[in-house]
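URGENT: need a sanity check before tomorrow's submission.

F., can you look over the P/Homo B domain-containing protein record below? I want to be sure the sequence and structure line up before it goes out.
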Amino acid sequence: MHKILNFLLFKLFILISCTEKDKNVLVNDKNKIFLLDNYCTNIDDYEKNPLSKYQWHLKNIGQTAFSSEGGVIGEDINIYSVLKEECLSGKGIYVGVIDSGLQIGHPSLLPNIDNRPKKSKTWSLNFRLGSYASNDPSPLQTAKSDHGTMVAGIIGMRSNLGFGGTGVAPRVNLAGYNVINHSLQTFQNFLDSLGLSEASKGNDIFNMSYGLKNIRQIEYSSSSIKSAQSAIKYGTQFLRNKRGAIYIKASGNGFSNLGNYLDSCTIANRLEVSCQNSNMNYENTLYEVITVGAVNAKGIKSSYSTTGSSLWISAPGGEFGVDKMWVEKLYQQNDEDIIWSNQKKSIGEPAIVTTDVSGQRNGYSRRITYKDPDEIFDVGNSFNACEVNENSKCDYTNSMNGSSAAAPIVSGSVALILEKNPILSWRDIKYILAKTAKKVDSNFKGIKIKVNDNLEYLLDQGWITNKAGFTFSNWYGFGVIDVEKAVEFAKNYNFRFPQFIEKNWISNTSEVNLSSNFGFFQTEIHIPKNESLNIESIQIRVSIESQYIGDVSLELISPQGTKNIIWHAGNAFTSNGNLDDMQMLSNAFYGEKSYGIWKLNVINTGIHKKNLKFKQWKLKVSGH
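Structure tokens as predicted:
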């Protein structure tokens, strides 16, 4: 029956797509006839888009979205007029979802999936042999949830159906590549997913809502790193008629924990810095990648969002979406008590509403017995328990969060920008996002520690303004995406970047030992004026030996005096976690001139009283 329904829906949407030249079409759903505008989406039209009232990331009116607390009015991506008045929808733009999978038969995703191998511009790939067809990356029927299906809904849930809500780009073309499964992460599978196959090379945007939780440096020789780097470099040079595909990646969710590495985050939690640095994930250090952090419904950094100098922009990722009173009531009915951890004070703040694996037993939203406390806690609220009319079939969830939710919001936003101005290059997109981002949490001044009675040290910076006039933060990148401003800027955008130049690495080998107490030294690299570029990216590589590399802080200072903490002390890189030519990236110097003396401050904070041996560093400038 489910397959028959999907077939009928598919036929229905073929009819719609064939009549797009007409301004309006009729769609019959649930015995109601809706007059649909093909392109415009009104977030306030709850008859056409019943879930949009809960999608605070699109329009924040302080709604709780079935959690315990509401957000702050106006803390959203400023997209209302772009969808309703400009009537942008992402139509004609193709997004590849590099993830765990994508349920291609989901009723809110099916209209945006043209999945015919060799006939469509793009199509999905299924790397899980023996499960479904080679172009069907849907989760297995035994799967409890599917990350990629939730990501896809944030990007491109079809609007105006009379059920569901809306994606950021509700008419974008979606394709899924289920490579994010340990057994499927082969060199070839990554290449095939990221633009080097017939199935994926037609994508304009690649959404990469994945990352590592590592406490040691990952070898550059690993297959996933090598293949991703190769594909991304090729994609920015040759895809989209050589304008370059857009690669958008989640920064990470490692601010307060790294999964099983609980002890590694003890110092970071005490110091209130990020346990994970965004530079710990190699793909975050590639200048072609737009790395995205997460903010919550109050407009400040989400409690889990990984920080670091490689962030480009932030977007809503929310918190955990739990309705504490609902959970407590059901616990009491089962004679159980629940104690809420102080470490997750934000557990009752809104998460993101999106598509979930459809059906009443799979996904975050599912029917439960109300007898199992663990199941009650996992579901977390009445929406996920399918008690709400708008989710009576359990096809949607209000619990998606993470930088994994923030990245697809940026991907959908970029789809709208490209729809408005399709000749923009990947470099143009980065510039537009940086130029139009909204500064949030302006009172954040950074994190300090007291070294002794006479000395304080700045572990992590607040907002800085570089000499090119860009404001930047390791917590937010250039700020939170503002879709209306970005689209308006793109509409009249006529700047064309000169040829992109990637300089060679410049090295400084000067071995220095620092004692176990607080210690500091400075090393320099000089760039002559005739080698100067307008900076689009600064990368460094560092080699350091230490019995506790998380005690080390690295500050990079540009010739024009801008300072950025590229590697903050207190992070989770632990004992014997030496840095061996480890690559890091900073976006803080964007737009500055590169010539002059670059200074690297190396600080041993002495938190664990371990010695340090600095061996060498390298600097690479890319720009024009």
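My own read: The chain has two domains: 39-420, 501-623. Residues 250 and 292 are 5 Å apart (CA to CA). If you see anything odd, call me.
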